[in-house]
């Protein structure tokens, strides 16, 4: 028989899935000279050795996530994959034996294992409460199996494949088509798991099922999953459909970065497996290299600390350091064009994949090829054809200020009713937050770690976002079926001029009869000092409405230029659509032409200046009403309310203008630079705003509301002065 | 004439006050070879050069702190001192000329300067709104004058002394005895300022006035200052009285670390000046070296990040990195016994004094002599004789858990009504907070940066602290005159055994008719895992009362072992004594024998387990009611309420038991280790508690309530078992 490392040209050689026989050869040759790889290997070895020493634990499945049986089986598949890798790289049979022994115990248990006893999922697994986690298991364990394939006898392989792997793959696919046969991140995991075990077993039926879905599945087009998402409206299924549909041509994943991060592992690991075993598919070139583009998009969708923007159902704190991004970065570096910027991300991750791709990265770092990863202003289209809105990111001064503007499609079942909403970051903090989700992932005390009811009643609602709510109802009346049919539309995006970068988008469907056009500019003008945001929300409506425009800040009220009254007891702001979760802490008494509000957070000073009418109200609100389990954070907002109005425009400036040291006790630039904002002109075609500063500088910004051509010439006369320019907007 | 650096043996040589002629010689010899000194010097030079380039700014005084004239004159005295030093060290006349020019402008202005126009202070200054800031000015400027003394002509010196320094010193002393002639940190600044200019001018009248106060001042013994503190009850005054009175023999400063930090500079800089010019006084040996001891005490009064515990009116975030601690550490190192631990504090400060003491530190660091500064469990007595209560700090596992227990005297006018209160820290965060003060120092938008009315109505009140409030009134009925007559009394302190460290103290005066004995143990027992706190608050009262015992945590409610109800609208908890500032967010429905509450903050898991009676209530409260200017933080508490009870005991365990990673989404040890707490025995003489863990381990703790001798033998029989031990407490 051939030594397993000499079987590189044999397509039935193992390992072949992620590690390859040639890769193993190369890695062994470099071991001890590739620091980041060596360090990762040492950590993994220590971890696996400790697990081997503690013995095999094989509890009967019974818990939700956070419970012992769940966590133990999750740990098992992670350790199995690592032990398989260690067997290959270190050529030490103790690892192969450990993998074999545990797989045999799984085989013994799985044969007679009933469906998991917990009933909450629309697709219950066997090892776990949902097929999703069973799929995670199989995607990892197929790698372990591949690594010890040649260590096992033919009979042992047959035993495992017949009693464990094949039934396992069938259970999560043909026995659960409502899970497997759809376009959804759950299905991507299912497809990858089935495909990977199929590639290892050389079972083409499974591989075809992975790529193209179950051919004859009959699913109710109107059925919904636990999150309220349609299970399969249009019959699309399989890995290629999952690659086709949720990614835009720019690599934006319609559920947002938190779910994209989660999905990256099966997309890229199965991509790597297909590239290794079926290179003729050219999976990384599929859809104009969308898999590789998606990794760049995802890295761009993070703040200066590398934390992903919590769009839709995103949990805050998830970052580019997550393991799924280690594989994404290494695979993109290896199978893409060795972008030196990725090496600095890998360096920050401080670990690599223990495979051919990690070796490439380790060699790149060893040769000091890394460059800083370039975080830029970027417009990411949404929709499989890139024509369903998008997410724009404007950045100034090396991430000193970052605006995230969302004008995307619904984002499947994890989408929020947040058309034209935005969030704002400075170098170290959220300035105006996106609330994120109402869930404590894997913290069992909080609803088993699952979505809490407040995710629907609060986090998804429009009022939970920095965008316009009309008549205390959410966009599309909070109806997923309706929201799923629409998306906002880009008006223009302009990031060429560092002095003023602008994004403008329209939303005509969220509120039938009302048209919203929001234009947001990130202005970094040496005349004015620090970068700031100009926000213009223009509304046309056929009815008179109540408008609410909140800004979710953090920290302590510092000062206002208006008087306000505080109630004796705190009452809720409304009765439904999220308003029932908000307390009214104070209300402005009388506003002049500009309302100015300054606050302080983490020793920094911020201000919002907004144009106000005499009948407008500025509300100080705080989240937390009707929250019987303390599931919500008690975060505040300042909220502009305008009643009984049809056509109108909301104009605001948001500044991060100073800081405070509690050690020196010195306050620097603690006051706003803005003296006054004025609407100079507001017509169907143009909106013109003047920004006057306390240093008596005045700037004018004019945006073209109807013609977004970059080439058209505009001529506008305002109060006897002519303004002439070419393109979407004017600033001087 | 002699070269100025050769006049070392001439007591009239200059500089002599802080820098000495010999020191200048030594520094010049070492320049370029002493990294931390060289770096500090370069920073200071850059700063002063920029100021010189920007010209001299001499606004007419008009603002409160935070306003331009205030900030500019504050900046001026800082820069003058530094420019003087640069002249000496760099021997560059441009610095001397700059100092001279600015001093001459001050001389021109001061001659005719009226009292400062702002009227809020009980002792208005001339350059600033209060004499305190004028004193700061003189303490710094006397150093600048000393540095350029020999650069000036006799006539110039006479002009400055006659028109500026002498009248300035007289104004802040004899013309404002209510400021100068008392025991208070304000007066310490005044004394130091007058003494330092006296030493430079060789004016013994001023030096005597500094050391011993104004001899014939006639002050109303019942007059109070802006903070409500008595101005001078007992006629004590002068620097030595200020050194005698507020420092305990352990070096604890009765106002607490925040004010001690502020006071350190005048204490130590004038100490250094006296040591240099009048070494025969042996000021650093005064009162058993209390000045040097106070620096160690202050360093111990900080959390693992070096932030001072915000006892009394302390602003959070002030830390051992503040400039006043740079001088304190350098002076203590130089004039003390060159403690290598201080070098590591200096290294973290990353700068040194530009004088003889900074040179010593720089040489110590250059020679790699530094060792880690030892943060220990320590009991610091309060009161000039050390017999007026104190502050105990218990630390476990290299600051993994730090308990701060306050059983001190009133703490002068900045004291809070917080007898037997505590705060708890882990390595990176506050676990159970001391609220601190209601003030935003130097942030003019918030009441000019001064104390806010909520400091009195909230921050000082008992309910704002983690201690017992009886019948919704504060200790001593919130009366300063009464509180000032009393202090708590140490029962025992035991930190020898790392497994269990205990502090116990009594308070019999805060509530006439009620006796409080609080015993707090920091238990770090390998059998039980992580360190935790056992808290036993025993009350005897002649009346039936309502008791409220809050625990001010941070973050998100995770779980409870009891049901609770949340109201539709939020109402205040009470009408006065701080209760009017608290909202009731939820109330327990029915409690069993233990109430358990878990929360999550900064990705860490915490639990409170407390013994409850069926009629007890656990209240979820939040600060922020009746706060019309948003001056208070919206921080939560869990509050145990027991009604209609005379003698009772409150027993709780507080744990920091786990953590969460938002990147791996894994929760580790998210649940409390405590299964049940029980009172086994509670008599006049003994309280015995059992702690049972979820791992079925049970420990017993018995504290002697009446006999605190470390030598006495105890024998107690409980439920047929005999417990025998020697000393204050038993634990097994
Ligand atoms: Ca499409
Ligand atoms: Ca005393
Ligand atoms: Ca005494
Ligand atoms: Mg959202
Ligand atoms: Mg959802
Ligand atoms: Mg306090
Ligand atoms: Mg006070």
CATH architectural grouping of the largest domain in chain A: Distorted Sandwich
Structural class based on helices, strands and sheet pairing of chain A: alpha+beta
Q: Work out the helicity level of chain A.
A: 25-40%
**Uncertain parts of chain A:** 1-10
CA-based gyration radius of chain A: 28 Å
Number of strands of chain A: 27
Mean pLDDT of chain A: 95
User: How many distinct domains of chain A?
Assistant: 3
* Secondary structure tally, helices of chain A: 17
Oligomer: homodimer
* Anisotropy-based shape of chain A: elongated
Most residues in contact: chain pair: A-B, 53 and 53 residues
Q: Sheet bearing the most strands of chain A, described?
A: 9 strands, antiparallel
Alpha carbon gap, first and last residue of chain A: 77 Å
CATH overall fold name of the largest domain in chain A: Beta-galactosidase, Chain A, domain 5
Strand content of chain A: 15-25%
Q: What hetero molecules are in the model?
A: calcium ion, magnesium ion
CATH class of the largest domain in chain A: Mainly Beta
């Amino acid at each position: 028989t051939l030594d397993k490392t000499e079987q590189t040209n044999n397509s039935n050689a193992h390992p072949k899935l992620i590690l390859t026989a040639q890769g193993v050869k190369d890695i062994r040759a470099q071991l001890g000279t590739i620091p980041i790889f060596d360090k990762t290997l040492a950590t993994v070895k220590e971890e696996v050795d400790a697990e081997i020493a503690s013995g095999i634990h094989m509890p009967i499945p019974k818990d939700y996530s956070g419970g012992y049986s769940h966590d133990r089986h999750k740990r098992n598949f992670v350790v199995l994959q690592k032990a398989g890798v260690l067997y290959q790289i270190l050529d030490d049979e103790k690892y192969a034996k450990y993998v074999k022994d545990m797989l045999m115990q799984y085989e013994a248990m799985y044969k007679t294992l009933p469906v998991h006893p917990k009933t909450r999922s629309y697709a219950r697994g066997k090892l776990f409460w949902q097929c999703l986690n069973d799929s995670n298991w199989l995607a990892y364990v197929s790698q372990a199996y591949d690594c010890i394939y040649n260590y096992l006898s033919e009979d042992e392989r047959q035993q495992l494949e017949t009693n464990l792997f094949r039934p396992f793959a069938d259970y999560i696919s043909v026995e659960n088509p409502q899970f497997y046969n759809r376009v959804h991140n759950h299905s991507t995991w299912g497809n990858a798991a089935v495909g990977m075990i199929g590639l290892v077993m050389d079972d083409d039926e499974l591989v075809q099922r992975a790529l193209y879905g179950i051919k004859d599945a009959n699913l109710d087009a109107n059925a919904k999953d636990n999150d309220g998402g349609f299970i399969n409206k249009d019959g699309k299924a399989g890995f290629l459909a999952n690659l086709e549909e949720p990614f835009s041509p720019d690599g934006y994943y319609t559920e947002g970065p938190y779910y994209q991060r989660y999905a990256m592992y099966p997309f890229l690991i199965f991509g790597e497996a297909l590239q290794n075993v079926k290179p003729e598919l050219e999976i990384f070139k599929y859809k104009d290299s969308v898999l590789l583009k998606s990794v760049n998009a995802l890295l761009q969708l993070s703040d200066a600390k590398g934390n992903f923007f919590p769009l839709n159902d995103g949990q805050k704190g998830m970052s580019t350091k997550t393991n799924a991004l280690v594989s994404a970065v290494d695979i993109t570096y290896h199978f893409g064009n060795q972008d030196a910027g990725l090496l600095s991300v890998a360096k920050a991750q401080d670990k690599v994949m223990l495979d051919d791709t990690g070796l490439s990265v380790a060699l790149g770092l060893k040769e000091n090829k890394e460059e800083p990863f370039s975080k830029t202003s970027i417009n990411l289209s949404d929709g499989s054809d890139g024509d369903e809105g998008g997410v724009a990111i404007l950045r100034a001064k090396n991430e000193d200020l970052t605006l995230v503007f969302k004008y995307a499609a619904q984002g499947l079942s994890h989408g929020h009713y947040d058309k034209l909403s935005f969030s704002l970051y400075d170098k170290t903090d959220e300035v105006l937050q996106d609330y994120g989700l109402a869930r404590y992932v894997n913290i069992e005390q909080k609803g088993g770690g699952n979505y809490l009811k407040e995710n629907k009643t609060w986090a998804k609602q429009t009022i939970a976002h920095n965008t316009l709510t009309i008549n205390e109802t959410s966009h599309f009346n909070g109806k997923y079926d309706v929201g799923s049919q629409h998306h906002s539309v880009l008006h223009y995006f302009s990031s060429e001029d560092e002095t003023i970068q602008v994004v403008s988008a329209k939303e005509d469907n969220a509120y039938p009869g009302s048209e919203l056009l929001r234009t947001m500019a990130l202005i970094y003008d040496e005349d004015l000092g620090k970068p700031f945001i100009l926000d213009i929300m223009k509304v046309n409506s056929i009815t008179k409405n109540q408008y609410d425009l909140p800004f979710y800040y953090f920290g302590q009220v510092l000062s206002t230029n208006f008087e306000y009254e505080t109630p004796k007891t705190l009452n809720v702001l409304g009765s439904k659509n999220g308003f029932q979760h908000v307390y009214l802490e104070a209300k402005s008494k009388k506003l002049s032409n500009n309302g100015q509000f300054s606050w302080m957070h983490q020793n920094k000073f911020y201000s919002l200046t907004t144009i106000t009418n005499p009948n407008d109200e500025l509300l100080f609100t705080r989240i937390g009403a009707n929250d019987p389990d303390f599931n919500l954070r008690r975060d505040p907002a300042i909220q502009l309310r305008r009643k009984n109005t049809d056509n109108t425009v909301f104009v605001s400036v948001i500044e991060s203008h100073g800081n405070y040291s509690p050690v020196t006790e010195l306050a620097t630039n603690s006051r706003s630079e803005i003296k006054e904002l004025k609407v100079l002109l507001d017509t169907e075609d143009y909106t013109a705003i003047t920004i006057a500063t306390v240093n008596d500088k005045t700037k004018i910004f004019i945006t073209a509301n109807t013609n977004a051509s970059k080439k058209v010439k505009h001529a506008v006369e305002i109060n006897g002065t002519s303004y002439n320019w070419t393109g979407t907007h004017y600033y001087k």
